[in-house]
Amino acid sequence: MEKFIFLSESAIDVIVSGKHARDSKIPATTLPGLRSKNIGADVLAFATGREHEGEFCALIDIASLKALKGDIDAAYTRIARVLKSAAKPPVHLPRGWAEFHFKSRLAFFAVGEDEGNQRWLADIDSGAKLVRFLGLTDDRRRIDLKDWVPPVTPDIIGYSAWVEVVRTSLAEEAKVDSFAEQVDLEAIGSDAVVQGYSYEYWLTILKAEQERIVNGPLDASVRVIGPAGSGKTLTLCMRAIRLSRDESVIGGRKKILIVTHSWAMTERIDGILHSLNDGRPTPSISVLPLLYILQTHAGNVGQMASAVLGEDSADGQRRVMELLDRFLGEVGAKIGTSSRALMSPHIVHAIDANQGSLARNELVLDLYEEVIGILSPQGVMPGDSDRVAEYLIAPRDETMPPFFTRTDRELCLRVFERLMEQLVDLGAITTDQLVLDCIRVFETFSWNVKRETDGYDYILIDELQLFDAQERLAVSLLSRAKPGMVFLSVEDPSQGMFSAVNDRSEALRAKDRVYLEETHRFRAGLFEFISYLYGRFPLNAAAIKVARSDSKVRKPRVVQLSGDEAITRFCVEKAKEVAASKEKGRRVCVVCVSAAEGAIFTGIKNAGLPVIRLESFDDVELLSYQRRAAVVSSWQFIGGTQFSDVVLVVSGLVRATNAHAKLRELTAIYLGASRASSVLDIVCDTRIPDVLQSAIKERLVTKS
Predict the structure, then answer these.
(1) pLDDT (tens digit, 9 = 90+) per residue, 274-312?
(2) CA–CA gap between residue 148 and residue 390 (Å, rounded)
(3) Whether residue 160 sits in one domain with residue 87
């Protein structure tokens, strides 16, 4: 009887993507895309035939695997992430996994924090490209990693030779039924960006603006601005590899950092670099979420809080907004008639709306922006009477959240006070508060002493529009050089809530701005509409153009329906149409600027169709684990993806009456519409937003 299973990273991807009914936590030997073989008496090995040189494998103790509680797919996914990280040491895992290291030994939470406190005990063998998962601990059975001695395991002999046999066998089968066609790896990640080309080949086909960025002077800081599909992320990764190969960078042992907003984006950048570099690691380039890198360095200088609400900036935002939503309900229920009369009408409407409604969600997002963009950075605390008095009467410009009256801002203060009380009870701080604390550490003499050894020579920032003003300042303080830094940032100002207010920030001023005007994503017809939306943003002065066109011109259409039930039926029928299509590469995503998201997801699921719901930035990685499933997502979580067909649901919106609300509505519509590459249907209820009405008049979209 086998005591261990042996899995490559590629095999784990297939296991998780299968989503088959499980009779056991051990992978089924009949799973499509996998082959299994007994290697010796104690080991059952799995392979896909697509394993590459440098890929780490996992040897997993079967008894421990069977003892695991919680979602087994989540456990396998975490094991796969450990393998990815082990291939590019040092190992970095999300903060919520609470990793501990001692020499080659590693411990981390095996499943999500809501599913138990079991931790894997693992041993990393870099020479053998192997991570051994050999035991579990929990609160009842604690083991100190320093005292743990990994048990003896059998040698793995003949696996590589067998993989070559599997590779040949599956290649023949792929002619009949290609697994690559079943699993959509091109909707997100390196495949969508790199298109299978190496760094050397991309150098020969870059556009003039991209070539200028990649091969520009080493000491030049550049801010790259462009629309969806213009190649911003590719350009950033090409620049990073160019730096890593420069003799002066190598000889000077200079450090390169790529900063992201979330772990999901970190993995995406890692994959792009790996693909561009012909499957080889890029050890001279560090790719990390901002939160992790700040904690790593600030923790070495000052005493940072041990509990932070969120694994990264994106997760921290989600958790804070959940708390704000709860406290808004508590505070709103206590507001009397006289106070309501002094509030802005849109706030009263949102307070009375159901939790989860669009109006309520919009107010929660406004509260979040007020807390992290104004109250926290300005040090406005509920008990500080002077700061509070200044805040209540301070003038506001049109880019700020729409809390116009004194009573509006008093509501913000009450919700903020409840948030602070909750954080004290939890013994935690928010990710935004952590950033502010880290900034204070980086402004100390202690960090000035350490910056020459711990700082970075080149800092590249992906999706700059997602970073608020304080996060941008924190990035600038990671530089070795003082006062300046050499950086490259890429952004689409139309896709982020912080772009308008942060364009004035001094932290990341660049003498050189490069606009990537060409986009490769859209067919003709659809491109005209996306270009029109892009031009409506005040920050986007440069027009965009399409790199190539084709004869398949289909203008987007606006479909006006009455009620959530009719909208749900439309989305279900669209999902059925795409599922039945034999056209290669078709996939549908329903992007919701609406409170109907849950009903649409349930409707597609009840129709017997495979469907995924994205509820956070990190959920985007699920796209590479599902077979041609329909996708349902709120507009906030869909950035970085691409689909052949998109249904953009814009319903239940209250007419935007101020510049802040109008900009957010335009951002949501642009972000959702720009996810489509071929077919776009925009579904509205009784109200069609002004920007869409204008597009109809301009004959850029049709109406039915």
Answers:
(1) 888 887 778 789 999 898 888 888 865 444 445 787 777
(2) 57
(3) yes
